[in-house]
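Why do we bother with holo predictions? Because pocket geometry can differ from the apo form. Keep that in mind while you read this record for zinc ion.
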Amino acid sequence: MSKGKQLYELQEVDLEIDAKRERLTQVMGRLGESEVLDEAHLSLARDEEKLVELQRIQREVEREVEDLQAKAAVATDKLYGGTVKNPKELSSLQEQLSNFRRKIGEGDDKTLDIMSEVEAAQKEVFVKRSEVAKIEEEWQAEQASLSQEQTELSAALSTLEQKRKELASKLDTVSLELYEDIRQKRQGRAVAKLERGMCQGCRIALPMSELQRARMGQELVQCGSCERVLYVS
Ligand SMILES: [Zn+2]
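The structure, written out:
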């Protein structure tokens, strides 16, 4: 096997290792990451708090109305009970009563308003709870699949790294150093196929003498333009 072909095979393995490592980094980054879920929980908690506060206000308004009704009942009894005879006192009681009734009317309006706010807030909480449950379910499924993928990637990587070690052990240090050097400069691709007289790394046609040297396969021939090692398949 020519050195070019050996290096090409090494590169195939290295590219696979690079891709799998990149994916593994992404997977690890997303494992345990729960920003969307946390936000959904927070938003639900805020809505629930708002509902509790509205319910508290509703009870307060209702208590105020009950209190006014009790006061109005007392004033009514006094006014029509026949115990109070003084016209001035009666007129003052009348005034108090109409005052209470006006306030009760206002309180009833307030109660109706707050009740519809409570209802809307309850609906919102109900909808959000089911949304959060759905997000949580999706999140758990995603985490399980990421965890599975992490296991698979780690296993695949250790197999590939073993394979790489074996391939590299058959190559001499000088070739390997050249390979690593070009790989760093050329986005991980140090070896290019030579097809129809052209380097497939940079699409430049090679001079005839270089073509012949590359085809012989006895020495490493580099592309004069991109420096990649050429491999004739
Ligand atoms: Zn080239």
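Residues 192, 199, 201-202, 204, 223, 225-226, 228 surround zinc ion (CB under 6 Å).
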